[in-house]
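User: Continuing from earlier, I have the next pair ready.

Assistant: Great, send them over.

User: Here they are, in order.

Assistant: Folding the first of the pair now:
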Amino acid sequence: MNGYFRLIHEEGKTGMKLFPPVNGGAPVSIGDVTEYLAMKDIVYDKGLLYKAVGASAEKEMVVLLEKRTTLKERECYKFTISPDNMQVYVRFYAPSIGGEEMTAEELINDLEIRGIRHGILRKEIELCFARTRDYCKDILVAQGTEPVHGKDAYIEYYFNTDRKAKPTLKEDGSVDFFQLNVVQHCDKGDVLAKLIPEDPGESGMNVLGARIRPREVRKAALKYGNNIEISEDNTILTSMVNGHVELVEDSVFVSDVLIVENVDNSTGNIEYDGNVQVNGNVCTNFRVKAQGNVEVNGVVEGAYIEAGENIIIARGMNGMGKGTLKAGGNIVAKFLQSVNAQAKGYIASESILHSTIMAGTEVNVDGKKGFITGGRVCAVNSINVKTLGSAMGADTTVEVGSDPTLAVRLQQLIALVEKENAEIASIQQILRSTKQKLAKGVKLTPEQLKYVQTLAASNQKKAELVSGYMEEIELLQGQTKGKEGACIIVRGSVYPGTRICIGDVSMTVQKESHYCRFVKSRGDVKLTGI
């Protein structure tokens, strides 16, 4: 219990009795005492009072305040409301010895008169008055109701939205080109996605009766394309056809797959917005172009195949020096011979012979044979191979650690930023000069004023352009950070004459090595073990 004080009224004088705290309570506060005496308009000797208050921490003290008899004071309290209007505290001050005490109902009525409309703790107040009062202590007598915050809406997808699937390596060392999980097939009637609506939550209320709204929750809606049915309550998407499903920029799409036996004279060239599946072969001089995936279960000859996403060739490709593969995603083939192949993702094969290969991430030649012989193989991050080069001295070059397309774009952006900044500097010089003239009282003609306004608008537009360029530069620089660890890993043998390029440095292998890794270290290509 905290220390407290009471006024003493005797004939010809008024004093104060100070009680020490018990059971670890706080001692009497000089602030409480002086505030109370000021409220009651009682004069006192500061020195005597301060000394008595200090000593009252250890024992009861009596101090003379005035040499006159004042009226007895009733029990009273100090009212405090929190800054957010969510709590009300009262601090009781004891009545004079022999003075009248307050009642619980009196305090409750006072709170209502003070505008407390909500959250008065009646039971706690009544309990407080039913026991020995805690004086000089803040007591909670009203508590507002906190709002119950809701939950954002979200969408559950019933298919794999990760489009970075890779081929599975079997126990015998061969690659399973059919278990790729690249294409997410769906059947008619399949549930594709479900919307879990938002929970708006519940409003709260402060002690003054003002409503407190819960935080705003994010709503969501199902976005979808053709061949999809949405439920009456707009919460469930269902496929209307057999095909494949994918998530593109938060929208669900289901496409029918174009299936043909062979690409030859019976079909002519193929151009399709979705996926293309060829059960047989793609013959020389024919073209297959698809926005999605291209799957070939047979072989590809000297043909041209372009896919917006992945290219999968189950039995490989002999390009005859003119075959071309171009994929916006990954390329997976049993073998690649005399092929020009380019992928924004990875390229995986069991063998690569006399081909030009460009991969945006990595090249993996980890199959049962696992060799790269002849030609040029490039990847941004890494090349993994069992056998590199040839004992017969085939001209073989492998490169990692650079992406020429990104480098060109970065140079373009840097040049644009320099150009725009130079123009901005020129414009700002004119604007500063104009501002100085206006400060000196020079008046501009309407034509001059219009010209200055045009320059100011141009300055703003160019600044926004530069900001956009810098964001793209930062993004591209972030995409190139992984190139620092670029490497070439040989899990078998590398033969002399093979040219190794990592970034801007290169070397030619002089002697046969086994189970090694080529990395860039201190400005040179180094060979290390694995």
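And the other member of the pair:
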Amino acid sequence: MKRVKNICLLLFALTLILVLGGCRGEKEEGKESTLNSTSSQETNAEPTMGGSIVVGISQDLDSLDPHKSVAAGTKEVLFNVYEGLVKPDSSGNYIDAVAKSHTISEDGKTYTFQLRDGVKFHNGAEVTAEDVKYSIERCAGITEGGTPLIAAFSNVKSVEIPDEKTIEIHLKQADTEFLAYLIVGIVPKNVEDYNKNPIGTGPFMYDSRSPQDYVKLKKFDEYWDQDHQAYLDEVTFKVVSDSSALVNGLKSGAIHMAARISIDETASLDPNAFTIYEGGSNLVQALYLNNAKEPFNDIRVRQALCYAVNRQEIVDMVSDGKGTVIGSSMFPAFKKYYMPELADYYKQDIQKAKELLKEAGYPNGFTFTMTVPSNYQKHIDVAQVLVEQLKQVGVNAKIELVEWDSWLSDTYVNRNYEATVVGVDAAYLSARALLERFTSDYSRNFINYSNPKYDELYEQVQKSTSDEEQVKLYKEMETLLTEDAANVYIQDMNNQVALNREYSGYEFYPLYVQDMAKIYKVAQ
């Protein structure tokens, strides 16, 4: 924090003459940091069964119900508890989970699954076709008064059970991407409250929770995949919203693992005590703008902010250049959809920014508030640099730090804000998961972006069964977001994971998850 503050002061003092190089940051996804001087020991470490681990997380879970949770930080925990008909692996492929096989009809309207034998819920009951049918219908709103809990499931026409081991999901219209959403957790039918009684089929089962303090999971001994059972007996996710306290917890041994910590924080850790992994965060970090509020309802103002910002400078200052500059709502892990050229669409141009502000009626700039969740130091650091950069065009940005629960309710749900610095995840391995949220009538379009052309492109995507056409349409949507300056896009942040050397086995995923079943204690 101190380093970022000092840099911001330097930037302010030299604001008219300081221009850093525009080389784009590159990341080595899934590779260990050069800070890890004994990577061969980590790679060859012998795993043992048993033991426990404490994982530091920056926010409490918003819900234990897998169909109602929205926060990325919640999904990284629940990934260990729930499984869908399919699930993602660390390479981004879909592998069968509760189902043992699946087929998709040529017209993209019928998904058929053969259920796996012997899959048990954490309460000991065997998963039935009725449970699967209920789970899908619940997500589709068929059992919840007609309101889908997950938007993509609004396309579900019916769920049929031809026999006790077969599930057919019939869609209203073709959707060749729907498989991505079937990683959603299968839950047992007739449970009164899944938030109070979370029951899944994953390698870990829910044990206990103290709100704002911890969530404890225990190994599920009857997990269906006996060849890939969890090594650890117990995992505790400890809520530590203060970054300094998190690092102190790592140093003291009270916390054994933490993800998404800063370069400065990992540098302060003893390299003999921790393995540091580096990868992408798979988040779109941006200065998100409320397009419905003045002055951000004027495209010229939004574009002015884009021209005022030097993204590479932010990446260099906040994370030593480790991160990937982006220019729209897509991150590099989605390779076939990602458009690296959009990162250069708004090259810093102070004069152009001032001209646009003058045209929009703000020749002397304006003042606005950036709402930033106080438990994410990386977003705070970026906000501080943005404040100094925007001063160059006469715009005065004030940072308002809020607790995560307040951000989630006031900013995300109620859209009561002007601008905010956060990272948005995909939730599912689908371009739709990132881009659907900006359609005009989407319930989670928290920036209030509205463009009829964008909505039209999305409708075309939904009707298309051609992968080539879908990629083309999604790229057109990304380009519109950039041209309209829907947000001030910044980066896919570098993700640094610190793991105590008593443990090993960490793997990155192309989603915002932590697979604790692969972590093990190293044989001593």
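Worth noting for the second one:
DSSP finds 14 helices and 22 strands in the chain. The CA atoms of residues 314 and 378 lie 11 Å apart.
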